[in-house]
Amino acid sequence: VDPLHIHQAARRSGEGPDTAAAEPVQGSGEACQMVLPAREFADLSAAILGRGSSIRFRARGRSMLPLVRHRDVLTARPVSVKRLRVGDIVLHRIGRDRLVAHRIVRLGQTDGKAMVTTRGDASLNPGDQVSAEQVLGHVVAVRRGTRSVRLDRGVWRLAGVLWVRLWPIGPTLLHLMRGAIGLCRRHPHGA
């Protein structure tokens, strides 16, 4: 899931892939709209989380299906990498400009440096390995409409661990279901 901006939504026209259009998140108390380049969003998120505050942002994309959908609101909190566990969802940098919210599938070290491997829940790829310094926050909640779920405890925490342990069964089933749904839409009566 690519976050675009704190309290944001995907821009529908004009600015190109490196910008984001902000819109109020229902119940956030925010009343303005703004356009913010992706790098500025990444830098602002890093600054806010680095000072110990949480952020909320709209997810963009489908890499974390079925748990996180396009335009769900995610809450990320600052975190020490020492406290992270396999199954947690983290907000991290990919390069300088891009942030993603993906699930941790492996924690380890390379040349004495702490490393985190993450992967989108819908992905059949092995994942991205990033240094611990690239991890900005821990995604602890997802809100869709009026329903909010804490991801860092209870059954949702366990579900995250199971999703990692059962890989690639979950993404494979997800892709098969998408294909079957697409086939049914193209040929609704078997014709």
Structure explained in plain terms:
It is a single chain. By secondary structure, the chain is α+β, with helices and mostly antiparallel strands. It is 23% helix and 32% strand. It has 3 helices and 11 strands; from the N terminus they run E-E-E-H-E-E-E-E-E-E-E-E-H-H. The strands form 2 sheets. Strands 4, 5, 6, 7, 8, 9, 10 and 11 form an 8-stranded antiparallel β-sheet that branches. Strands 1-2-3 form a 3-stranded antiparallel β-sheet. The longest helix has 18 residues. It is globular and about 55 Å long.
Would you kindly provide a brief summary of this structure?
The chain is an alpha+beta fold. The protein contains 3 helices and 11 strands, in the order βββαββββββββαα. Strands 4, 5, 6, 7, 8, 9, 10 and 11 form an 8-stranded antiparallel sheet that branches.
Number of helices: 3
Q: Major β-sheet, in short?
A: 8 strands, antiparallel
The helix/strand order is EEEHEEEEEEEEHH
Instruction: Bin the helical content.
Output: 10-25%
Strand content: 25-35%
Summing up helix and strand content along with how strands pair, one would put the structural category as alpha+beta
* Number of β-strand runs: 11
Overall pLDDT level: 80
Shape: globular
Distance between the termini: 37 Å
Sequence stretches where pLDDT stays below 50 over 5 or more residues: 4-26
Q: Which value, in Å, is the CA radius of gyration?
A: 17 Å
